[in-house]
Protein: Acyl-CoA dehydrogenase
Organism: Zasmidium cellare
Amino acid sequence: MTAGSTIDPNHPAFAHIPVWVQEKLSPKAVETIKKVHDWVENECIPAEPIVKAQIELDKKTEWKTPKLIVELREKAKKEGLFNLFLPKSFGDLSPGLTNLEYSCCADIMGKVYWAAQTMNCHAPDTGNMELLAKYCNEGQKKKWLLPLLNGETFSAYSMTEPDVASSDATNISCRIEQDPSDPNMLVINGRKLYGNCKWNAELGFYILMACSDPNNPNPWSRHTMVIVPKDTPGFRMVRNLTIMGYDHAPEGHGEYLYTNARVPKENIILGTGRAFEIAQGRLGPGRIHHCMRLLGQTERAYELALLRATDPAKKPRGKLIGAFDSNIERLAHIRMTLDALRGVVLNAAHTMDVRGNKAGKYAIAQCKVLVPAQCAELIDECMQMYGGQGLTQHTPLPEMWTYARFVRIADGPDAAHRHQVGRDEIKGAGRVRERHEGYRERYRELCGKWGVEEETFGMPRDGSGSEKAGIMRTN
Amino acid sequence: MTAGSTIDPNHPAFAHIPVWVQEKLSPKAVETIKKVHDWVENECIPAEPIVKAQIELDKKTEWKTPKLIVELREKAKKEGLFNLFLPKSFGDLSPGLTNLEYSCCADIMGKVYWAAQTMNCHAPDTGNMELLAKYCNEGQKKKWLLPLLNGETFSAYSMTEPDVASSDATNISCRIEQDPSDPNMLVINGRKLYGNCKWNAELGFYILMACSDPNNPNPWSRHTMVIVPKDTPGFRMVRNLTIMGYDHAPEGHGEYLYTNARVPKENIILGTGRAFEIAQGRLGPGRIHHCMRLLGQTERAYELALLRATDPAKKPRGKLIGAFDSNIERLAHIRMTLDALRGVVLNAAHTMDVRGNKAGKYAIAQCKVLVPAQCAELIDECMQMYGGQGLTQHTPLPEMWTYARFVRIADGPDAAHRHQVGRDEIKGAGRVRERHEGYRERYRELCGKWGVEEETFGMPRDGSGSEKAGIMRTN
Amino acid sequence: MTAGSTIDPNHPAFAHIPVWVQEKLSPKAVETIKKVHDWVENECIPAEPIVKAQIELDKKTEWKTPKLIVELREKAKKEGLFNLFLPKSFGDLSPGLTNLEYSCCADIMGKVYWAAQTMNCHAPDTGNMELLAKYCNEGQKKKWLLPLLNGETFSAYSMTEPDVASSDATNISCRIEQDPSDPNMLVINGRKLYGNCKWNAELGFYILMACSDPNNPNPWSRHTMVIVPKDTPGFRMVRNLTIMGYDHAPEGHGEYLYTNARVPKENIILGTGRAFEIAQGRLGPGRIHHCMRLLGQTERAYELALLRATDPAKKPRGKLIGAFDSNIERLAHIRMTLDALRGVVLNAAHTMDVRGNKAGKYAIAQCKVLVPAQCAELIDECMQMYGGQGLTQHTPLPEMWTYARFVRIADGPDAAHRHQVGRDEIKGAGRVRERHEGYRERYRELCGKWGVEEETFGMPRDGSGSEKAGIMRTN
Amino acid sequence: MTAGSTIDPNHPAFAHIPVWVQEKLSPKAVETIKKVHDWVENECIPAEPIVKAQIELDKKTEWKTPKLIVELREKAKKEGLFNLFLPKSFGDLSPGLTNLEYSCCADIMGKVYWAAQTMNCHAPDTGNMELLAKYCNEGQKKKWLLPLLNGETFSAYSMTEPDVASSDATNISCRIEQDPSDPNMLVINGRKLYGNCKWNAELGFYILMACSDPNNPNPWSRHTMVIVPKDTPGFRMVRNLTIMGYDHAPEGHGEYLYTNARVPKENIILGTGRAFEIAQGRLGPGRIHHCMRLLGQTERAYELALLRATDPAKKPRGKLIGAFDSNIERLAHIRMTLDALRGVVLNAAHTMDVRGNKAGKYAIAQCKVLVPAQCAELIDECMQMYGGQGLTQHTPLPEMWTYARFVRIADGPDAAHRHQVGRDEIKGAGRVRERHEGYRERYRELCGKWGVEEETFGMPRDGSGSEKAGIMRTN
């Protein structure tokens, strides 16, 4: 049973959700979306400058989750707004939302950078929780997964490397080896980028992908995933990485150095050499959570542009900014493009719901290529409408742009996703070619029937090799 | 009951239809889509050069529907593939497809420019049939609508003018007046562009929008729609208009001169001065039929690009064109953008199904702005992959590009649609502003609670006028 | 001596020529530019529809140069406006203009598609004349070059092939062989695209590039250039190729079939196997003549857009089209982009003047990549400002767009030029790397001096291989 | 005498300077350019991380010019590399470079954000020095200008306001009034954005534009410019403004509040109500200094991209990044676009040299519209080639992008410049229309001569009003 008919289409939580999606929402989802909406409107948006102030203050001593967010996390947990992303397979822990339904929630969460965190729905913990739930043994789950689910700690994912082209993960070179002095221990050496920042007081552990068997003839069996506790000796953070200048405190992004770092063998996930198997399994809805949130963020950027366009104090050449038709068209362009991108994300979520993650692979790539790049452009247009102010901290637009720009490379640069899709398409070109060759035969029949001389376009008629190759038009 | 589960997702008629749409297709629609698919694959694509040859031959004597199409129309009628676009309100004549279902059919029809015509689903007749069905009296319906439905004649729509900015239809200046010498007759004087070509032997009549009462204080009551039979004396075609050089025979696009042309008063539709009322009613699904077909056309352009990329005879620098990663990424870009546009069109169709044409207004504009411009770009990339050949008649790509370019101005240039959407958005900005003002109050509360000094960004704190205007951030 | 100071900067022939170019014009060049300007303004632009009418009439019987153009060619010859492109090396035949000066002339000629032809400055004859002058023996020159210079005949260049990827010319497969039955004759077999149309009555001969020695280990010595007279038996035109639907009569573009076509051996240019040597020599200013003319053509498109913007009869929503700020900005965008492109072309012309054709290679590629694609976009924007009329024969804009689009592939698709430049840049990256490695040493010195700890970014400090590789920042 | 012929075209300081510019460089300029080149290569690029470290350290106590820059400024002064931008009108202080020559220097300086400052060529002081030199009396010059020229202090320019649309400067509302209690003093009240940061210890004074006579019927006489010393009571900095998150220490960008701030009347520049006169005079070469430097900055971004493309440690899918043809084409695109933009800037500089600042207005606007937006895009492509690292402090690319983005709004958003150019073009459309009307008459003559019927396109032949309006084609 769905609740499509009970939704008020003017309610701001639903106004930009396509009809086909509204029709599919369960009553529980409708209620949850409304709650998330109210939560973000009342607890997050108005609190933004306070969180900012708390972070700045905290940074003077220690990087940690700001008090306001800590309080909201407690409250969200009590109100059932925690771990909304968890699919049904998590049993009681799961709120039972479909990916499509969760997408509507995440869209709203995106309006504030840290809102997802108040509901324990933030990256990379969401992906990590799914990974741990899927591939850990019971002991590992109890030790590492449960505290995450309970919101008692945070985790990082550590894969990117500075020294190789790690967007092609078979290149990953950070070494993990048997400790020669202790059969129960492993030794790690290498460098990593982009795990969350170690300065973060609440961070508990890292899921590391490293090379355990560089000479294995199968390049997909050379790597292993292992859990690295934060306080592991020999594991050092070189610096916090800024993203376009932002430190993204308190989560941050670390640059790491492993120098004979030792971790217990029991921290291996699934088994030695099985990192790619796990990585494959991680390729699910979590891959588009960023995209979902970018929609809401761009929605908010658009609202700010609308406000600027109608600000009675801003009248260049005597008219409201929104009275200039270039701006009228610009707003329309943003509105329409954003909604088209929303359709792409929702379609991907639904495809995974119905057909599974593997079938959704193309739709995921489509999100990752189209959404971040275009959202960044849309937000940029909103910024420009604010003139000089648009680039300053007077608006959240610069941080929004930066987040969108970041997602263009997070989980792989867009070129890598285009490449994957393009190769799959070319692999499937044989079926298309076959169909087109059928046209030629039928064309000849029809030429006979209608007494028309057969045309060739740029190819010999003698049936030589290039004839098939040269199929263009229809013959 | 839907047939989603019975669809083979690899069937080429469904492979690019989103899951959510597949789920909504009735068994009858699934069957119809398959039939349309087979029809286009077997009867249309392979027949393209034959139709082209017949048209060229015919043009030497008379512009008329080529024999192959005439035969296909007869056959389509027998096989129940005629008038597929007709909504249920047409009773038995209607095949009972929803807009969403018809969209899947039209998408496929789009693969060949004239395929829609073989099924009597071509513009402008589809829009005209809806108009006549909705606004004509019984006598008019019998005389003008029935022959169209039966496929016995064709019609034109005549609105654009060369002498004024008719994209703003209140400017339309072609005059229609009472004939001083005959109370049952009207006299028309003026110039029109873009009604179909009079040279077309089968064309029966024009639906003309003209100015009957230029001094009416209400600009929306100054115009009248009237049926003008082709052989009306005083009604002359000055020339056939080419579109980017194409004559589009045998339909064509005429430039017309009315010099004291006389038509019977009984040909007025709905009533004098009610043209805008009718024009409003015409703003339904027919407005996106072009966009639906552009999808299929771009799909076919993409298939041609795939073939070129894998043509074993074409190896610049020794590699297949599709072995260059720039082309791999290009193909992926086309595939993904095209599918995103398909989502936009299907969403518009479904929105009209569920919420009605009026609620679909925004989604229609979204189609008209995003689809033609982007499809033209995608087809252009396909052309470029064919090198010099791409621009010649060796491929249908130049005609495809031209059609997409044409739709960017048909039914109004895209700027006009952006303008309409932008103005509506600005009208609704008040609600957004209200919400944002709520943030400010809540922010103050939270400042109190957390002991944080209230921040102002670029605005005085004294509550003066610009404070509200200046709401940016959240406070 | 230059005439820069004597130029009236408001004269329409000079208004958009940069100051630095004006300064370099000789008095003779200034005078010639003015004459070309008056010629195009008085003899060409107003005659456009007449030429069109004459061509249409001629086509019913024979494709030939329209009478008006024939007359203008006679007149231009008398007035010294013939063969303006000829460099000084042609002696008395040359008007003595630099490439830079000729560029200013060609820019103006570009306003009308056929204006260059009235001055015998049209492609492909300009390139062919240079080729023949440079590589033919005296007998060949007398027979083939002189009639071209005198304007008594026309020529074609035949290189592109339908069956291979001929943008990589080493793939050219059309075969030229010794005639086994006659030692003085050659036999040709193969297919060609894009030589001018044989239907053109005045066309005299083709310069053909074909494969004479497919097994030569040096791929650059396998091909030969030969002159093929139009009436050669065994040489057949399959069809005239249209470009985006335009037949480009009377020049046209042919698709050709050679079936044992026999030409005298004496028609070989320079020598067997030396086609690439000749092709290299052809890579001079002639390669950017199209780009020069595209500037003038886009200038005229822009003028038409300005006229539309200020047309008092066109008032959507009650205002001139040019009163909408979106159009004001659009016009500025076109104006500024066009002038930037003009700077690119003029710079390329001047670079060849001073440094020679080889040094100008990069600047030529820059023209070919930037100018056609961007001019096509600019013209497209002008078209859109005309609404529905913009795509019809009411304006010359569709033909202009098509010409710009054509030049994107003429003499190689833009991707090929980008590829060439990119590879050259990568070849030169060693020097850049060396310089950057110098920064590192200096940085270390400065660290010492200022007592700052050396930073490493994503690289080990141990001097291992990746250190040099990883140079990013400055250290 | 120029030194064009003595230049080594492979010297990295000249490699990308067009030939026409090289020809115009005086021997002194050639020498200066080389010195600037060596200076930036040896003193600035390798010192970047040290300056960064010094700034971070300084910020803990006081914002001030880092010691390394202080030392370089001393050294540059001694070596004659100080105040290079000063035109000849500054007498002995001026190095005598033309704008064109200075542009070549500034291009190189742009490679490092703070390099211009080491030579006292940084904004906004360059513009301020010109302003003070041009409009101040001798006493003012001695007090305010001399210390700037000597590099003893820094200055700010204060114009933008948060409360109005100050991109239209007639809106500026910050009030400056006679002090009722002291005839020699003025009182200022209002808010300003974007003057440099007051925290900067070396900052000496602000040039403020404020409203002195709001009711003056002439809106261009309502404003006054006045010098505001940094320590003026009642003049408070609210916060440092970040630009896309960067604090731009130690210069910064302040948000300011004037609350009954009092300055001596003698600080008025030129006279009460003459601010626009001064602002006009400021519109010279200083307006494109940012654009000049953006070229060098983008050049350096491009070099970093080249390094990444050829980094032997980075091999996705087993190949160098620069072995992928998509990247080869990308690099070519950046190279060619950057050089085209360089042409635009150099042309603007030269136009001002020869024709004066007023004639250069269009060329200035062309720079400001085309250069920052396109440089930002090019830098963004370089960033993306670095994958995840590209957004971090591992490369200077994020700061480079931010600077380019900032210049899109500095001195007015690009839309404002487009608007200005577009309006000027439309004003000049009358001349174009006149010319086009001439075509029509000539066309009629030619129709007569050639016996061709006159064509009309979309317009009546009866000479009525719209005939002229409707001129399209040529008739």
